[in-house]
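PT: before anyone asks, these are the final sequences, not the draft ones from last week. 425 residues across everything. Please model them as a single complex and drop the result in this thread when it's through.
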Amino acid sequence: MYDLAPDPAAFSALIKAELDRVPDPDSWARLAAHLRVPERRRRRRLSVVVGLAAAALFLAAGAAVAAETDLVHQFIRFTKSHQQPPYPATQWMIWAMATANPVPLARAQSNGQFPLLTSRTVSPASVDQMILPCETCPLAYRLIYPLGEGVTATVYETLAPRPSPGKSIAPVKDPSLVESRTVAGNQLLIYYTSSDHALIPAIIWTTPYSVTQVVILFDRPARAEEALAFAATFH
Amino acid sequence: MTETDEDAVARCLAGEESAFELLFQRHRTRALRTALAIAGDRHAAEDIRQEAFLRAFRTMSRKHGEVRFSTWLYQCVVWSARTHAARARRRPTPVLDPGAGRASDLDRAELRLELVAAMQELPLQLREVLTLRFYVDLPVEEVARILRCRPGTVKSRSSRGLQRLAASGRLAGFAERSTPMGSQHVRSRA
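LR: through. Structure below.
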């Protein structure tokens, strides 16, 4: 059997000749409508960071995790009392400042910026678009899933802030309570309430190529196997 | 004297909107055609280019001085094309009339983009390599940097992509019309 291999130079000439005939009407106006000049953005970013820092100082207690993103600093806060009931809500603090607008799931899924992941097995009880008080804050959605035994999972999804999965999120206190694990190409950061890794208050991950960042917060820490099984249902 | 991309990027970082437009106008056509070769759909290519430029502009402060703007832009084009492909897999467009063909096919027919159409039968990773190497004319090392793989991988994917194009039989017309595609290297496969 014979196999024919094209000449790379000939292929290059042909593909250039073909593609160079494709017209390209000027579309700068379309892009410019979405473009924000960094100078203005930096000023807004600074104001958001200052606001969040003030909020963090005001609320600081227990373990805190700071995540630097392209646009803002995000803080996730867990309290020591997670280890004993009653469990207070874990806050993804930046979204605590946001306004929630209910939207249909189909509209959220066709947002045009990032693929919205949903659970294959549990339907969300509500879907909200989160509006933050700054123009440059990323588009984000909140989906609330009722799980068994009265546990509720609040899932925040947004366009991943950096091209390197997971690099932007680093624990600042007790690294043994955070585990980094790669599952099906996704780099998961799993947060535990204690060193025996029995309970999980939150799971954060970024899909391959840093497309979607997903934050799952359980209203009270879920059993590890159940929390991970729930995360595995997202696609 | 023509302003370099790096100078334009510096002006962008200083907040001059005209510099963004300069970079866009300089690279828009090649970025669109690169996206078209990878995605195979004109409308998708325009969306991919839009996303790629936005991503490149938003992150240029981190990449300035680290990589050339064009390298970073093509990396953004590849990422956006992958994102688009993932979306398309997740939400396939329903075909109402299988016999009618899609608008993108019509576009290709009007423009006679047979080679681009033939490339769509290849896996995405082979299309990326063939496009960046043979349309954009990037050296192997730069393609490897963009695709985050080893130069050897780029070479093997290039070779495999060309082999599969030839084996598909879709290039027969090109062999007759122009340069001898498929006729230069004939090797026996045991």
